[in-house]
Amino acid sequence: MNPISCLAIPIISLSLGHPFFAVRPPFLPEGVSRGDKPCPVLSRLIHDADLPLSVRVAAVGALHLFRNEESREAFLALLGDPEPVLRRLAADGLALKCQPRDETAHTALLRALGDEDPAVRRAVALAMGRIGADGAADALVNALAFDNGKDPALREGLIQAVELLGGPGVERLLALADSGVEKDLATVVEAFHRMRTRPAAEALPTLLKNPHLRVSQRAELVRAGANYLLSDPSVSIRPILDYVLTHPDEAIAVRQAGLFLLEKAGPLPREEKVQAWVLEQLKESDRDVRQAAIRVLGARPEGARLVGRYFLDKKLPRDFLPQVAEALRRHAEKDPDAAALLAEVLKSDP
């Protein structure tokens, strides 16, 4: 058997984490276990185009066993390999081996951001996001803006890459939204809907004030606030809620999104202003809005009692009885007043 093929077997197993190779076998090159500079045989395995692709891929996996600087150089060289799989793995490797703000790696990755293979572009974008060098925000947001969306994995990867940049990536997205171009604005709204980090959550209220947003986009952004219910420390929904409260004449879709956000965030805040706004939504003709308001109010005993009295005063249609009864029933066991109202509500049904 060819000695290179023999060497490939332990390297393949090692790169896949095979337990047999937890201790280095005697025929594995000494440098692999010591983390020194990659041995010439391994370099030949990586760059020999005549070898099976599976062998070369396994050899690339073995590169992760070496010190960062040596493996970094090898990954940089592989970014120009004819095989897309190896280019993608090279980008993945740079994301792991490079120091933050590595300008050399950033420049090489920037050239590769236009790769013809979508999987390679995705890996390159994520590597740029992790390294976070100067200029990465502009490059990644531009790539996202010009992406046609035909490859969902690439699209998601570009958004994640911008998100990895933190504040600079989010600020560049806001600048793109300010252009007023409908396609760019739709891209930014989509990105904020998919992101989950604190910088994006903090920028959401600013984006909501963009005058170019359509009603459906404002509603989507308000709903997106429920995606950012982070902890340690928590992210307050109040800035987003304030937008809804200060725009009482907003479209029904936006107000319904505000009720959705309140419902997902937990019990209604004990604030008269917020409670009054939710009660106003009970007067809407839209059935979905009314039902959402009942659910939000019903999360607390005092809110459920308000709903019950509202129903008994015939300010809600009779066919809302199941929703009203459910709101009261949630608290009837521990709240005698809610239990009494529940009995009265059920008795009112002819």
In a few lines, what is going on in this structure?
The protein is mainly alpha-helical and 350 residues long. The protein has helices at residues 3-15, 30-34, 40-47, 53-62, 68-78, 84-97, 103-112, 118-131, 136-146, 152-164, 167-177, 182-194, 198-208, 215-224, 238-245, 252-265, 272-281, 287-297, 301-312, 321-329, 336-347.
Q: Which key terms come to mind for this protein?
A:
350 residues; mainly alpha; 21 helices; 0% strand; disordered N terminus
Structure description:
There is one protein chain. The chain has 350 residues and is mainly α. Helices cover 66% and strands 0% of the residues. It is built from 21 helices and no strands. The protein has helices spanning 3-15, 30-34, 40-47, 53-62, 68-78, 84-97, 103-112, 118-131, 136-146, 152-164, 167-177, 182-194, 198-208, 215-224, 238-245, 252-265, 272-281, 287-297, 301-312, 321-329, 336-347. It starts with a helix and ends with a helix.
Query: Share of helix among residues?
Result: 55-70%
Structural class: mainly alpha
Average pLDDT confidence is 88
Which regions contain 5 or more consecutive residues with pLDDT less than 50? 1-9, 11-35
**Any idea what the shape is?**
elongated
Q: Give the strand tally.
A: 0
Largest sheet: none
